[in-house]
Amino acid sequence: MKKEIIFVLLNRFADWEAAHTAVCLNTGVIPGRPVKYIAKTLSLTKEPIISIGGFRLLPDYDIHTFPEDCAGLVLVGGDNNWFSPEAESLVPLVEKMIRENKLVAGICNASVFLGKHGFLNHVKHTSNALEYLKNIAGEKYTGDAHYIEKPAVRDGNIVTANGTAQLEFCREILYALDTDEPEIIEESYSFYKNGFLFSGK
């Protein structure tokens, strides 16, 4: 049975930050390869949400119907939506997933949300920039010694990325979830990054 990976989307979410990861989970790292996971969506309510690009989406879940047995959370960034008071209601879900040693991945402003709540203080991580992270996350963020200036960083089951690193973010999530063999993950990344054809493995 396929395990669910929950993509947390708030109004004005960044379409591109989730797209590659969802495709690789739903169809195989390379189309035709084994599929272990399925992408599902969650927002604060089940009301429709609209992306930065104007796509209208009806979430599968809200915070009251969160599936207890899911395999991970992918927090998708956007236009300051992670800094709203409403976003605070997601903190218990993140805490639960970290406590259970499941995937928690945050890109762009969602990585700042993780920093703001102390989730990055003891793991290697990245974000949109260290000063940006420190300025917005505030005093609960004390993890600057673990900050790495890279597009995406994985430390165990915690994955972070800046807002322009959707492909690197995808690659690190695929590794964290052990979705396929390393060479297949790298081939998928190379295809989307450089336009090289799949080898057909």
Task: Walk me through what this model shows.
By secondary structure, the chain is an alpha/beta fold. It has one domain: Class I glutamine amidotransferase (GATase) domain (Rossmann fold, 3-Layer(aba) Sandwich), CATH 3.40.50. The strands form two sheets. Strands 2-1-5-6-8-7 form a six-stranded mixed beta sheet, sandwiched between helices. The chain has a two-stranded antiparallel sheet with strand order 3-4. Helices cover 31% and strands 16% of the residues. The model has no long low-confidence stretch (mean pLDDT 95). Helix 1 links the parallel strand 1 and strand 2. The chain is built from six helices and eight strands, in the order βαββββαβααββαα. The chain is globular, with a radius of gyration of 16 Å.
